[in-house]
Amino acid sequence: MKKIAVVILNWNGTKLLEQFLPSVVAYSEEAKIYVADNASTDNSIAVIQSKFPEVTIIQNDGNYGFAKGYNVALKQVEEAYYALVNSDVEVTENWLNPILSIFDNEPEIGIIQPKILDYKNKAYFEYAGAAGGYIDQFGYPYCRGRIFDTIEKDHGQYNDDIDIFWASGACFFIRKDIYRKLNGFDDDFFAHQEEIDLCWRAFNLGFKAKYTSKSVVYHVGGATLNEGNPRKTFLNFRNSLLMLTKNLPENKLFLWLFIRLCLDGLAGIQFMLKGKFKHCWAIIKAHFAFYSLINKTLKKRNSIARSDYYHNNSIVYQYFVKNGKVFEP
């Protein structure tokens, strides 16, 4: 058995598979490749069977989204290391060897992210992950190479190997044993920020996440749900509140949640002023959905919740007040 499994989640993504699966097949000799299909209604399965016979297909019996889709599929994957890769990612030659080296030689590292660049503009980092993720004390995620909507050009400033707080779900490496110890992603998230929640839970148990620039991939981003979709706004705002409820230290939980709810309100007003009424409504719906899940979510809290989770006190203050548009070490 090979050590690493590359697992690509698919739902009605024939065109993406035809475009991006060839690079995965060409440059992943070290891995067994799987496509986990979320009950597609297009011809995805037939295309994989005819054009990529070396790929193993796992057929889920419903469209479970990102979180549950992977949870269901990975019950059938026994390789020691998982590479969870979006269907709109182009990988590069030798992308797996640096990952294998870290996992084999650094047992304290449980999760890894490669350098993620923009497929449409390869000189720049990509929004979802860039050069490794962090959060501020209120749970706002940001990356080296991307803070809110400001994306940096890659000129080697993040050519390093460094501990991070979260790794992007666009190309997410994790040890099988840790994934199963944590019971995988949280099904209630469906999609968006479930990887940050998983990394936070791993962090609370003492596992580390790492970024390496020696492995490089290119991500389209927004190929399955674009930035302008109110559904994405709903999922991001709701899931961020769920994540905070699960993982914040008890002495910060309710105050930090209250502050976040207020800041979300300001974000809603900003959407209204820009005429983006559907996005404002999406935030309101996200809050009500959060309230409906709060009791269930509180029961998921681990007794261990570390207080040293954040890198920046407030990325909102740094970005909007101090005009800090790039990552500060």
Q: Which descriptor suits the 3D outline?
A: globular
Q: Can you give the helix content as a percent range?
A: 25-40%
Q: How far from one another are the termini?
A: 40 Å
Please tell me how large the radius of gyration is.
Answer: 19 Å
Structural class: alpha/beta
Mean pLDDT: 96
What is the number of E strands? 14
Biggest sheet, open or closed, and with what strands and sense?
10 strands, mixed
What is the string of SSEs from the N terminus onward? EHEHEHEEHEEEEEEEEHHEHHHH
Low-confidence stretches: none
β-strand percent reads 15-25%
- The number of distinct helices, counting runs of at least 4 residues, comes to 10
Topology of this protein?
Blueprint lengths: L3 E7 L3 H13 L4 E8 L5 H8 L4 E5 L4 H10 L6 E5 L3 E3 L5 H9 L3 E10 L2 E5 L7 E3 L5 E3 L2 E2 L2 E2 L9 E4 L6 E5 H6 L12 H11 L3 E12 L10 H18 L5 H21 L3 H22 L16 H7 L8
Parallel strand pairs: 1-2, 1-4, 2-3, 6-14
Antiparallel strand pairs: 4-13, 5-14, 6-7, 6-13, 8-9, 10-11, 12-14
Helix pairs in contact: 6-7, 7-8, 7-9, 8-9
What does this protein look like?
With 329 residues, the chain is an alpha/beta fold. Helices cover 38% and strands 22% of the residues. It has ten helices and 14 strands. The protein has helices spanning 14-26, 44-51, 65-74, 97-105, 176-181, 194-204, 230-247, 253-273, 277-298, 315-321; strands spanning 4-10, 31-38, 56-60, 81-85, 89-91, 109-118, 121-125, 133-135, 141-143, 146-147, 150-151, 161-164, 171-175, 208-219. Strand 2, helix 2 and strand 3 form a beta-alpha-beta unit. The mean pLDDT is 96.
